[in-house]
Automatic annotation (TrEMBL):
Pfam families: ADH_N, ADH_zinc_N. This is Galactitol-1-phosphate 5-dehydrogenase. Belongs to the zinc-containing alcohol dehydrogenase family. It comes from the Bacteria. InterPro entries: ADH-like_C, ADH-like_N, ADH_Zn_CS, ER, GroES-like_sf, NAD(P)-bd_dom_sf, Zn_alcohol_dh. CDD domains: sugar_DH. GO terms for molecular function: oxidoreductase activity; zinc ion binding. Residues 8-345 form the Enoyl reductase (ER) domain.
Length: 347
């Protein structure tokens, strides 16, 4: 079968791999139809992370069930499915308490076990989520990143009528804008330095666009909010600079949730750090997308919101390419000569 295997930093190879086979009584084999490139894939491609050299990559994907273990009786061949790629130990104190996202052995398919950048992938039955006919395979490839976003928002007290600032309008930020609206936010501020991404943010529901190139983000948000700030600030850019600047955006008693992951040290100027204390902010870190009962309400909420068309993900797709273009497309992404939001592999 065709596959994309990661061997080292910037060493991604399109090659033939052996098809997976059923080995345990809870396994399901899926014929992958669509797979997406995650922002974390880009960082791992450049700098590496948890990795088995030569492993099949990819953790955002959807497809059709083609083989099931004998003990799997609640799933049919031909079923259309999305996949939760998270794998956990199930034995540690965190897992047993239901706090699965905190499992010290948590990882996703594509890291140390074969992932979804391939014709076929094998996963445990509990990781497989049936999707209705109203959701395309292309949309279903967004189920996992959407669940990542809503996992973070569930930690907050976001409620109807609130104001939300989303820092960074990549895939995660654009999903956060939509989820803020689904939660009932009255006003959503989209923040990014790229006008093309801000235009896309407006298309998916942002009310006010803020470009830091036009002046201090803090001052712009204060002007729009008459000096108060927002109820919730969402860090979705994952840069060292924005990870500090985000603290200046909420109102007194407001909240910050971190969805982005900076891959360098974060230095916080006194101005921004003091906001945490003087504004009495609540700050949430958010990791992965799972909860109990596994895979969690994040995935169920996503399927529901996609099905009723509240969550629109197709506008987020900037490129659709065959799997064989994988090595080329990753190089183009890190080259930054063109705008990328979500890249979808078609298989």
């Amino acid at each position: 079968m065709e596959s994309l295997c990661l061997y080292g930093a910037r060493d991604l190879r399109y090659e033939e791999s052996a098809e997976p086979t059923i080995e345990h009584n809870d396994e399901v084999i899926i014929r992958v139809k669509r797979a997406g490139i995650c922002g974390s894939d880009i960082s791992r491609y450049k700098k590496l992370g948890p990795l088995t050299p030569g492993n099949i990559w990819g953790h955002e994907y959807a497809g059709e069930v083609v083989e099931i273990a004998d003990n799997v009786t609640d799933l049919s061949l031909g079923a259309r499915v999305a996949v939760c790629p998270a794998l956990y130990c199930g034995k540690c104190d965190y897992c047993r308490s239901g706090y699965i996202a905190a499992c010290p052995d948590l990882l996703v398919t594509g890291a140390k076990v074969p992932g979804g950048f391939a014709t076929y992938v094998k996963v445990p039955r509990e990781n497989v989520i049936s999707i209705p006919d109203s959701i395309s395979f292309e949309e279903a490839a967004f189920v996992e990143p959407s669940a990542v976003v809503v996992h973070g928002l569930f930690k907050t007290s976001l409620k109807p009528g609130d104001s939300v600032a989303v820092m960074g309008c990549g895939t995660i930020g654009l999903l956060a804008i939509q989820w803020a609206k689904i939660f009932g936010a009255e006003k959503v501020y989209a923040i990014d330095i790229e006008e093309e991404k801000l235009t896309l943010a407006k298309q998916v529901g942002a009310d006010i666009l803020v470009n830091p190139r036009d002046g201090s983000t803090f001052e712009q948000i204060m002007t729009f909010t008459k000096g108060y700030g927002v109820d919730l600030a969402v860090e979705a850019a994952g840069s060292a600079a924005t990870s500090a600047q985000i603290f200046a955006l909420p109102k007194k008693g407001g909240e910050v949730v971190f969805l982005g992951i900076p891959y360098s040290d974060v230095s916080i100027e006194r101005f921004y750090f003091e906001k945490i204390v003087r504004q009495e902010l609540k700050v949430f870190g958010s990791w992965n997308a799972v909860s109990a009962p596994f895979p969690g309400r994040e995935f169920l909420a996503t399927i529901n919101s996609m099905s009723n068309k509240q969550l629109q993900v197709k506008p987020l797709i900037s490129h659709r390419v065959p799997l064989k273009m994988g090595p080329e497309i990753f190089e183009r992404i890190i080259g930054r000569d063109e705008m990328f939001t979500k890249v979808i592999f078609t298989l």
